[in-house]
Specification:
The protein is mainly beta. The chain contains one helix and 25 strands. The strands form six sheets. Strands 4, 10, 11, 12, 16, 17, 19, 22 and 23 form a nine-stranded mixed beta sheet that branches. Strands 7, 8, 9, 13, 18 and 25 form a six-stranded antiparallel beta sheet that branches. It has a three-stranded mixed beta sheet with strand order 2-1-3, with no helix packed on it. β16 and β17 form a beta hairpin. The radius of gyration is 22 Å and the shape is globular.
């Protein structure tokens, strides 16, 4: 015997709420992505370089932290390129990302600056610090300026499958590109551009402790022009699977790009480059997401002094 039940409006509403709940369960968002919440660090620099206090800003729970010490990890998934360094016994802070008032809230202002260290008038060292924010964390204190990428632990746990990344931005870019390290200044080709990328990975650790990943999805854009005002709700699509045959593909977008290695820590806390040797598909479930905004491109120490890139209201679109 077949029993037919009357589908009432109440039942329809219940079914709709269940489906909505399932969708929301997969629609993961990244905390503090509205850029309205900031922590201030007051880093006391060493006497030998002036004994000043550097203000460094981080995206996260509001508050003020004093002292020359590594950032205490709270509940913020975001990290900035502003750093605390302890090199050869000297404490130094560097600020490249700042909160800026926008309407009733704040946005993030990313800048490329020339950082200098002067020791009693005898030593004068400079390098280019490019403003950026990313999901993950810095393994502070920075102890070696030669290999800054090894301190960037990029990516946070994430299992969603978004279609795009949406954000507001403003840009003052196009300056002369240079690579400035403590030992050398090199002029680079072309004008400076801002860079935005999103990467979904499926990571695992093998029996020897090495880290591996499949590239599940990619979103990438270089912003080439300055803007007179805000560009709101810009939407960057994510492409799943192997993107190397896409008509707009560039080598810097692909898996295992040597110019921008991705670092992480294994289960024993050892830092290493992640071997991202293959692509996955949309059927794979990601384990990590890397979102990165930068006011320059070309790796560490590369950019244009004085260029700025503003970011606000970051949102994943499903």
């Amino acid at each position: 015997m077949i029993v037919r039940r009357k589908i009432t409006n109440k039942t329809k509403a219940l079914c709709a709420s269940i489906l909505l709940g399932l969708n929301l369960a997969n629609a993961q968002q990244i905390k503090y992505s509205d850029m309205d919440s900031w922590e201030k660090r007051l880093i006391e620099e060493s006497f030998i370089i002036g004994n000043g206090t550097k203000e460094v800003y981080e995206i996260g729970k509001p508050g003020t932290v004093k002292g020359a010490k590594a950032r205490e990890r709270g509940d913020s998934p975001w990290e900035t390129s502003s750093i605390y360094a302890h090199v050869s016994g000297i404490d130094k802070g560097s600020s490249t990302v700042f909160p800026e008032k926008r309407g009733n809230g704040y946005c993030a202002r990313l800048e490329s600056v020339l950082e200098s260290v002067k020791v009693l008038g005898m030593i004068n060292l400079s390098c280019l610090a490019t403003g950026s924010i990313f999901t993950g964390y810095l393994d502070e204190p920075i102890k070696d300026g030669d290999k800054p990428m090894q301190y960037m632990m990029q990516g946070i746990p994430f299992t969603g499958k978004p279609k795009a990344l949406k954000f507001d931005y403003k840009a003052s870019i196009g300056g002369k590109r240079q690579k400035i390290t403590v030992t050398k200044t090199t002029d680079l080709e072309g004008k400076n551009e801002a860079e935005v990328s999103v990467i979904l990975q499926k990571r695992w650790e093998d029996e020897t402790g090495k880290l591996h990943a499949k590239r599940i999805a990619t979103g990438y854009i270089r912003i080439k022009e300055s803007t007179s005002d805000w560009v709101n709700d810009y939407t960057l699509p994510l492409k799943y699977g192997n993107i190397e045959k896409e008509p707009d593909f560039k080598d810097y977008m692909g898996a295992n790009y040597k110019g921008y290695p991705i670092w992480g820590k294994n289960s024993k806390g050892k830092k290493m480059k992640i071997d991202e040797a293959e692509y996955g598909t949309i059927d794979d479930t990601p384990t990590h997401i890397i979102i990165r905004f930068s006011c320059g491109y070309g790796g560490a120490f590369a950019g244009a002094i004085g260029d700025k890139f503003w970011v606000d209201n970051v949102e994943l679109v499903y």
